[in-house]
Amino acid sequence: MKLFKKTFSVLAMSILLLVAPFAGQADASSKSASITKTATNLTGIKYRYGGTTKAGFDCSGYVGYVFAQNGVKVARTSSGMYASGKSVKKSNLESGDLVFFNTSGKGVSHVGIYVGNGKFAHASTSKGVRVDKLNDPYYWGKRYVGAKRIAGVNQVAAAN
Question: Per CATH, which fold does 24-149 belong to?
């Protein structure tokens, strides 16, 4: 019986040591899935300059709202969001990453949430909350600036 207990204890500890490093990744993966779901469920809400509620969103208000609904705090402005997080190569984007654009000719001026399959959700000034193609050759593709991964959403960050 003593040998069984000792063997069981060693086996249990071995399993814990193997699984423990991946525990945070599962949490982050589920967090990014939840953020993506929240982001796409808000499609159709109108644009409102300075808006941070379902009554109407501007781009950073929308991103802030989605992240707050999932327990993650981000800066209020697109430029503030761009100044935080870890840079991510476009080829390494994961759902929940923030994507940034220059729509004004003066640096980062628009933000959205990457939702997978080459698409991002955002609050468009002309059509409200919607999902668009990141590499749209007519508008978004030409204005893409970069992407950031926010701590606690996706675990692994890749440099630009």
Answer: endopeptidase fold (from Nostoc punctiforme) (3.90.1720)
